[in-house]
Every structure is written in C-alpha cells, then in structure tokens.
Amino acid sequence: MAESGLNVTIVYDNENEDGFTGGWGFSCLIDTGETKILFDTGWDGCALLHNLKKIHISPREIGKVVLSHQHWDHIGGLPVLLEAHPGMEVYVPASFSGRLKDEISARAKLIEVSGATEICHNVYTTGELDTDTKSMKEQSLVVDSGSGLYIITGCSHPGLTGIINSASQFGTVTGIIGGLHGSTEYGVLDGMRLVAACHCTVHKEEIATKFPDAFKAVGAGWELFIPTC
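RESULT FIELD:
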C-alpha cells in the first residue's frame, strides 16, 4: 500500500539540478494528491513551463496559484502560465496594487488574502504579513503533515520570527523551505528537522554551519516527499 503524503518540488530557483533551467526567482509546486498548488512563478514563464514539463506536470493540472508578494522575480512567470491555463484560482495578498489585481482578475479567478486562510486540505496561507516596505505585504504557505508543519516562503521579508509565529497557529513548525533573505534570526530555526534555504538567502553558509543536520542545499528540481498522518 502506497504511503500517503504530499510532494513538494522546487520548479524555479537561482540554482538548478541537471536538466532544469535556473533563473533569479522562486517557484514551488505542492501536490497533495488531490490538488496541485503552485507557490510563486519565478520571473521567466518559459523557464517555468520547461521545468514543469521536466517533472511531467502540465499547467492545466495546476488548480491554484499562490503569490507570496508582488516582486517581479516571484510573479513574472504568471502571464505565460495563465496563457497556458486561463481561469485558474490565483491567491494574492489583498495589498497587491490595484492595477496588478485588475490584470490578474481579467485572466484568472482572483482571490484576495488578508488573514490566515485554508487553501485546501492540509495547506494554509499565513495571510499577508507586514514587511519593512510599507506598501508591500507578503504571505507564506504552511503544509501540515500531521506530525509537524512545513513553511514555504517566498523571500521572508516579514522576518522569520513573524512568519513562524503566524504559522504556529496551525501547529508546531518542523521545517522551512524557500528564500530566507538576509535573516539572521537563527534561534528560531533551533529544533527544525529541515531548513531548505534557497533563492535570496544571504547567509546560507552560516545556516549550514549552525544546523548541519537540518540544512539542505536545494534548487530547481529538488523534491521532498512529506508523509502525512
């Protein structure tokens, strides 16, 4: 009998495994077995589609897109994705610019996120969190394995403490995947089973040294299976 769980695959990153295209930005596919969610889209939509094809995923299989924040390297691939699959659900922080929301809503089902929200079974958003930039907020995804939470971040502009505190309303955080920006909040990573730092993470070497058992060097093509209880 097959073990139940979720698959998490990085499909866009600065670093890449053989056969995958790299580029500045981030995108991650979460496959729950029932729903495929794309978190961010990187910058280059053609590279994104290439990498999705590499893992045998058609854009038409993706039911939901969640955008962390409105920086170009996280949303640039969206037009190409929507051209391939118009009408899908796109979750954005409610603070996205009005013009950008208008552009998205013309080609997709726009869902504005303010507070913590269930995206589908076992997958949640933290809701939009404050950053150092007053006009921009950012959301992260939270994946519940039943025995611990895994956070998927875009750039961690709100800071790791704020992101982890928000995610903790759903349970105990045991792993984090994504861009950690210039964060030096190393203490909040204590006890993590996984720290897969990529994209905009400035202090990878320090994190790897402090958390050698948890740290993973990852890029486009890296895959993680998370068993669910």
